[in-house]
User: Fold this.
Amino acid sequence: MRKSKVAEKQKKIDALYGNLSAGVLSPEVLAGIDKQIVTLRQEIEALETLEPPRNFTAPEIRAWLQTIREAPNATAVKLLIERIEVLRDKEKDTTEFNIVSTLNAVVSETA
Assistant:
């Protein structure tokens, strides 16, 4: 994830350099491009020095989930849901909901 963000920011820098080489630009445009490049380089540096997240243990995950159960938090619940699949069976006139969690891979590895 971190590498893809760095690569994305580097692509933006490369595109900005492409704009610089495209031709004569006003001082305001040059200053704006320079500012964007400096900002992107700082963001890349911050991403590269960022420590990778630590692995959580199964008891820590269970405790966190219990906290959410006791006091539901919309933001935390959204983080737990990767997608919701809605399956409609016209013959039986039923609708089935399948909620795919972002924790499935983590829980299966630590449980």
Notes: The chain has a mean pLDDT of 81.
